[in-house]
Amino acid sequence: MQLPSFFNDFTLPPLEWHQQMREWSATMRVTEPVWFDEQNESWRIFRYADHIRVQNDYATFSSAPAPHENNEAANSIIAMDPPRHRQLRSLVTPAFSARSIAQLAPRIEEITQELLQPLLVQGQMDVVAQLAVPLPIIVIADMLGFPHENWPLIKQWTDALLSDSSLGQEESSQDLEMPLTQEQVMILYEKMAHTIDERRRHPRQDILSLLLTAEVDGEHLSDDDLYAFFITLLVAGNVTTTQLIGNAFLCFDQHPDAWQQLRQDPSLAPVAIEEILRCLPPNRGTGGARTIIGGRVATTDVQLGDQLIRKGQVVKVTTISANFDEAQFPDPLRFDIRRNPNRHLSFGHGIHFCLGAPLARLEAKIVLENLLRLLPEWRRYKDVPLRQVRSNIVFGVRNLPITF
Ligand code: HEM
Fold it and tell me: Where are the membrane-spanning stretches (predicted)?
């Protein structure tokens, strides 16, 4: 069987793509839950239980890049196995704990206000471009001590990294709305080098200073490790959260009754965010033959369901499928902002569980609280068609104009 045609069709309206993905996955969970995708020469899994198995068994299903992969994320913890993964991740775990992140709330609130206030008088805005894109970039840049006035450049750079790594070269270069010039990429690297240099001379209480003084096996991190950390946090921390915020609007636009429930009881926001994450996961989990974000490589021949996975073969997750698996979620098609428990896999599972989950959750919560307070009567502009993000890695909308 071939991949269905909708799979790589970024011209479909986002919710239509999502519906087709859900329907196809529901069939695959029954008929071929462990399926070999010949086009991408990789296995794709559909059932929740198999996702858990693969993500728990990191010795058999490695996160290191597949041998044929030219992976720019190779030095990132996302593409590492224990023991090095544990050593490096533990360096930054304290900075991303729920407790440390909670202390950022006033700053995130301030940035949200700065972004929203000038828009309030206008009575309309594009939620993605004017709120969901800049907010997470400014927050993570602040945490890294990286100048954030350049957030549009950081956004373009992220798009280029995600786009190059997921689509064919030709397609991605045509698609990028504003391709980065070599010169702009150099500017970003120079700024990164400058920030690292500066922090080396004048350490502060921030993540970068922590990394600069850290030792693993008695050695400081190499420059490659430092850059990889920096880029991982800058990239992983922005586009996914952007999509979560955009997807929240999409959910409430589709389910106005849920918005009314939230207005009546704003304390439901954190639980509602989990349901948004379950139903419209920002990570698409559809990448090609690559291991990055949710992909794994078998380190030995292994039986999964009734299929034999060979050593060296890639196994890809399908987050949407796992999140709608009826064996895990009662009435999975129902959007229920009170759903509890809600063990969705949108942040992954196991040792690579998203480091930034508390941060993404807090940003989304602050945005929702501000909306409930400042624009409770918002409406989506229905005449403007919504466009999908063109990436095999993330799922969401590129635009979402509202009026209030
Ligand atoms: C809604 C927003 C987000 C989603 C849906 C998301 C999703 C994910 C997923 C699925 C993984 C696991 C990948 C795997 O198992 O291969 C992951 C890992 C990771 N995420 Fe997130 N992420 C989000 C926000 C963030 C933020 C805000 C940050 C940081 C500032 C971040 C940093 C990371 C890092 C560093 C890893 C690698 C962890 C490791 O390998 O141990 N993420 N994320």
Answer: none
